[in-house]
Amino acid sequence: MTVALVGAGPGDPGLITVRGLALLRACDAVVYxxxxxxxxxxxxxxxxxxxxxxxxxxxxxxxxxxxxxTQGLAVVRLKGGDPFVFxxxxxxxLALAAAGVPFEVVPxxxxxxxxxxxxxxxxxxRGLSQTVTLSTAHGEDGGEPDYDALARTGGTLVLxxxxxxxxxxxxxxxxxxxxxxxxxxxxxRGTRTDQQVATxxxxxxxxxxxxxxxxxxxxxxxxxxxxxVLASSRPLLTATR
Length: 241
Fold this sequence. Notes:
By secondary structure, the protein is α/β, with parallel strands linked by helices. Helix content is 28%, strand content 22%.
């Protein structure tokens, strides 16, 4: 048997891949992230082991997957988004490989493009952006991101895990040379039925996003202005100076 590192997609349970859903429905055990849609966990067989990873640190998760895998079980490690995009799937795969446990990686739809798209924001658009830069809102060891490098990239910036420090992020990017009027958006709980979006110039985005819930992405770039035309019927909050 194997351990499958399965991407559950960005939130909407309908966005898991066909392969991922098939593995879920046939597994003996599932280890799932807190943000995974409960409808997906309910897809596992009635007698399967269901384990939340919420109280486990990464080393404990690695050990758990190795332990389950060496028992000859069909194991699904169900992860939000894509396992290899800020999902620490690489660490889990390395632990399994080191222990000689067979595994496979089933990619998922990443929040990188899916969450902005759900808010009517294409991360690339002819004439506006030909590049996308993906980053966490934190640098190494929890420090500051490299604002100078981010501000130089041009195109679209997509920052993960930054809801709690939007003011710092905006100030850091502006101090590094990004125009304060650059369009920005925060997409909260993207692709879900309770999705909300706040849009504003970069120097006002923190105030515009007050009250939004995690998980959330910060999107910065000229493509954000397309949300006014392309946004779906989900709630859109706007703020202007």
